[in-house]
Input
Amino acid sequence: MDTLTWLTYVGVIFALIIFPGPVALLCTSHGLKFGRKHTTATVLGGALSSLVLMMVSSLGLGAILAASENAFYILKLVGGAYLIYLGIAAWRDSSGIDIQSPSAAGNQRIPMKTLFRRGFMVGISNPKDLLFFAALFPNFIDVSQPQLVQFVILAVTWLVIDFTLMSTYAGLGSSISRWFQSPRRYKRFNRATGGLFIAAGGTLMASNH
Output
Protein backbone atom coordinates (compact mmCIF):
# COMPACT_ATOMS: atom_id res chain seq x y z
CA MET A 1 0.00 0.00 0.00
CA ASP A 2 1.49 3.30 -1.08
CA THR A 3 1.58 6.37 1.14
CA LEU A 4 -0.89 8.39 -0.94
CA THR A 5 -3.52 5.65 -0.77
CA TRP A 6 -3.08 5.38 2.99
CA LEU A 7 -3.33 9.15 3.50
CA THR A 8 -6.49 9.23 1.39
CA TYR A 9 -7.93 6.42 3.50
CA VAL A 10 -7.06 8.31 6.71
CA GLY A 11 -8.83 11.42 5.46
CA VAL A 12 -11.94 9.53 4.40
CA ILE A 13 -12.39 7.52 7.59
CA PHE A 14 -11.57 10.49 9.83
CA ALA A 15 -14.42 12.44 8.25
CA LEU A 16 -16.76 9.45 8.55
CA ILE A 17 -15.93 8.57 12.16
CA ILE A 18 -15.90 12.09 13.58
CA PHE A 19 -19.42 12.76 12.30
CA PRO A 20 -21.69 12.10 15.33
CA GLY A 21 -23.59 8.81 15.15
CA PRO A 22 -25.14 6.33 17.60
CA VAL A 23 -21.78 5.16 18.99
CA ALA A 24 -20.55 8.73 19.51
CA LEU A 25 -23.82 9.57 21.24
CA LEU A 26 -23.53 6.51 23.47
CA CYS A 27 -19.92 7.35 24.38
CA THR A 28 -20.88 10.90 25.28
CA SER A 29 -23.81 9.70 27.37
CA HIS A 30 -21.75 7.08 29.18
CA GLY A 31 -18.94 9.60 29.72
CA LEU A 32 -21.39 11.88 31.50
CA LYS A 33 -22.98 9.14 33.58
CA PHE A 34 -20.04 6.87 34.41
CA GLY A 35 -16.88 8.94 33.84
CA ARG A 36 -14.27 8.79 31.10
CA LYS A 37 -12.31 5.88 32.62
CA HIS A 38 -15.23 3.46 32.72
CA THR A 39 -16.51 4.62 29.34
CA THR A 40 -13.30 3.23 27.83
CA ALA A 41 -15.16 -0.10 27.95
CA THR A 42 -17.90 1.38 25.74
CA VAL A 43 -15.28 2.73 23.32
CA LEU A 44 -13.56 -0.67 23.14
CA GLY A 45 -16.88 -2.40 22.52
CA GLY A 46 -17.58 -0.09 19.58
CA ALA A 47 -14.06 -0.61 18.24
CA LEU A 48 -14.45 -4.40 18.40
CA SER A 49 -17.71 -4.17 16.47
CA SER A 50 -15.89 -2.26 13.72
CA LEU A 51 -13.21 -4.93 13.59
CA VAL A 52 -15.86 -7.65 13.30
CA LEU A 53 -17.58 -5.78 10.47
CA MET A 54 -14.25 -5.35 8.67
CA MET A 55 -13.53 -9.07 8.93
CA VAL A 56 -17.02 -9.96 7.72
CA SER A 57 -16.63 -7.61 4.76
CA SER A 58 -13.19 -9.01 3.93
CA LEU A 59 -14.79 -12.45 3.65
CA GLY A 60 -17.24 -11.11 1.08
CA LEU A 61 -20.27 -11.49 3.34
CA GLY A 62 -21.03 -7.79 3.11
CA ALA A 63 -21.64 -8.11 -0.62
CA ILE A 64 -23.87 -11.15 -0.02
CA LEU A 65 -25.89 -9.20 2.53
CA ALA A 66 -26.21 -6.26 0.16
CA ALA A 67 -27.58 -8.60 -2.50
CA SER A 68 -30.09 -10.25 -0.16
CA GLU A 69 -33.04 -7.96 0.47
CA ASN A 70 -34.58 -10.25 3.10
CA ALA A 71 -31.37 -10.60 5.14
CA PHE A 72 -30.72 -6.88 4.94
CA TYR A 73 -34.29 -6.07 5.98
CA ILE A 74 -34.11 -8.40 8.99
CA LEU A 75 -30.80 -6.90 10.07
CA LYS A 76 -32.26 -3.41 9.77
CA LEU A 77 -35.21 -4.39 11.96
CA VAL A 78 -32.97 -5.91 14.63
CA GLY A 79 -30.58 -2.96 14.63
CA GLY A 80 -33.37 -0.40 14.67
CA ALA A 81 -35.22 -2.20 17.46
CA TYR A 82 -32.09 -2.24 19.63
CA LEU A 83 -31.51 1.50 19.15
CA ILE A 84 -35.16 2.16 20.07
CA TYR A 85 -34.75 -0.04 23.16
CA LEU A 86 -31.73 2.02 24.25
CA GLY A 87 -33.68 5.19 23.58
CA ILE A 88 -36.59 4.12 25.77
CA ALA A 89 -34.19 3.08 28.54
CA ALA A 90 -32.43 6.47 28.39
CA TRP A 91 -35.76 8.33 28.33
CA ARG A 92 -36.94 6.53 31.48
CA ASP A 93 -33.63 6.81 33.34
CA SER A 94 -34.04 9.04 36.38
CA SER A 95 -31.12 7.71 38.45
CA GLY A 96 -29.16 10.97 38.34
CA ILE A 97 -25.42 11.34 38.84
CA ASP A 98 -23.24 11.98 41.86
CA ILE A 99 -21.66 15.36 41.15
CA GLN A 100 -19.01 15.00 43.81
CA SER A 101 -17.89 11.83 42.06
CA PRO A 102 -19.62 11.78 38.68
CA SER A 103 -18.93 8.15 37.94
CA ALA A 104 -19.16 6.64 41.41
CA ALA A 105 -22.84 5.76 41.57
CA GLY A 106 -23.05 4.53 38.02
CA ASN A 107 -19.89 2.45 38.29
CA GLN A 108 -21.34 0.52 41.22
CA ARG A 109 -24.54 -0.28 39.36
CA ILE A 110 -23.19 -1.07 35.89
CA PRO A 111 -20.12 -3.30 35.40
CA MET A 112 -17.64 -2.38 32.68
CA LYS A 113 -18.54 -5.56 30.80
CA THR A 114 -22.08 -4.22 30.46
CA LEU A 115 -20.79 -0.94 29.03
CA PHE A 116 -18.56 -2.93 26.67
CA ARG A 117 -21.52 -4.99 25.51
CA ARG A 118 -23.62 -1.90 24.90
CA GLY A 119 -20.85 -0.29 22.86
CA PHE A 120 -20.47 -3.45 20.80
CA MET A 121 -24.19 -3.89 20.19
CA VAL A 122 -24.72 -0.28 19.11
CA GLY A 123 -21.70 -0.45 16.81
CA ILE A 124 -22.64 -3.70 15.14
CA SER A 125 -26.41 -3.16 14.97
CA ASN A 126 -26.27 -0.76 12.02
CA PRO A 127 -26.15 -2.71 8.73
CA LYS A 128 -25.14 0.42 6.84
CA ASP A 129 -21.72 0.13 8.51
CA LEU A 130 -21.36 -3.35 7.09
CA LEU A 131 -22.23 -2.11 3.63
CA PHE A 132 -19.82 0.78 4.07
CA PHE A 133 -16.95 -1.55 4.87
CA ALA A 134 -17.91 -3.81 2.01
CA ALA A 135 -17.71 -0.86 -0.38
CA LEU A 136 -14.69 0.80 1.22
CA PHE A 137 -12.07 -1.93 1.24
CA PRO A 138 -12.11 -2.75 -2.48
CA ASN A 139 -11.15 0.87 -3.20
CA PHE A 140 -8.09 0.82 -0.96
CA ILE A 141 -6.72 -2.71 -1.36
CA ASP A 142 -4.39 -3.49 -4.24
CA VAL A 143 -5.23 -7.04 -5.32
CA SER A 144 -1.78 -7.39 -6.88
CA GLN A 145 -0.16 -7.05 -3.44
CA PRO A 146 -0.43 -9.24 -0.32
CA GLN A 147 -3.93 -8.53 0.91
CA LEU A 148 -3.53 -9.61 4.53
CA VAL A 149 -0.87 -6.96 5.19
CA GLN A 150 -3.06 -4.30 3.61
CA PHE A 151 -6.07 -5.41 5.64
CA VAL A 152 -4.05 -5.19 8.86
CA ILE A 153 -2.88 -1.67 7.98
CA LEU A 154 -6.42 -0.53 7.19
CA ALA A 155 -7.86 -2.17 10.30
CA VAL A 156 -5.22 -0.80 12.70
CA THR A 157 -5.58 2.67 11.19
CA TRP A 158 -9.35 2.56 11.62
CA LEU A 159 -9.10 1.30 15.21
CA VAL A 160 -6.60 3.97 16.25
CA ILE A 161 -8.66 6.81 14.78
CA ASP A 162 -11.95 5.34 16.02
CA PHE A 163 -10.63 4.82 19.56
CA THR A 164 -9.15 8.33 19.68
CA LEU A 165 -12.29 10.09 18.46
CA MET A 166 -14.73 8.05 20.54
CA SER A 167 -12.54 8.62 23.63
CA THR A 168 -12.80 12.33 22.85
CA TYR A 169 -16.59 12.08 22.85
CA ALA A 170 -16.42 10.20 26.16
CA GLY A 171 -14.16 12.90 27.58
CA LEU A 172 -16.60 15.55 26.40
CA GLY A 173 -19.42 13.85 28.24
CA SER A 174 -17.33 13.54 31.38
CA SER A 175 -16.22 17.18 31.25
CA ILE A 176 -19.79 18.51 31.18
CA SER A 177 -21.07 16.23 33.95
CA ARG A 178 -21.02 18.99 36.58
CA TRP A 179 -23.35 21.09 34.47
CA PHE A 180 -25.98 18.38 35.04
CA GLN A 181 -26.04 18.68 38.82
CA SER A 182 -29.58 19.92 38.34
CA PRO A 183 -31.97 16.92 38.19
CA ARG A 184 -34.03 18.83 35.64
CA ARG A 185 -31.05 19.25 33.31
CA TYR A 186 -30.08 15.60 33.74
CA LYS A 187 -33.62 14.51 32.92
CA ARG A 188 -33.60 16.70 29.82
CA PHE A 189 -30.28 15.21 28.73
CA ASN A 190 -31.61 11.67 29.13
CA ARG A 191 -34.74 12.49 27.16
CA ALA A 192 -32.76 14.21 24.42
CA THR A 193 -30.41 11.23 24.21
CA GLY A 194 -33.31 8.79 24.27
CA GLY A 195 -35.14 10.75 21.59
CA LEU A 196 -32.11 10.69 19.31
CA PHE A 197 -31.70 6.93 19.75
CA ILE A 198 -35.39 6.35 19.06
CA ALA A 199 -35.23 8.60 15.99
CA ALA A 200 -32.13 6.79 14.72
CA GLY A 201 -33.73 3.39 15.26
CA GLY A 202 -36.97 4.42 13.60
CA THR A 203 -35.14 5.92 10.64
CA LEU A 204 -33.07 2.76 10.21
CA MET A 205 -36.14 0.52 10.28
CA ALA A 206 -38.06 2.74 7.87
CA SER A 207 -35.24 3.33 5.37
CA ASN A 208 -35.43 1.59 2.02
CA HIS A 209 -31.68 1.39 1.41
About this structure: Residues 3-15+22-206 form one domain. The longest helix spans residues 147-175.
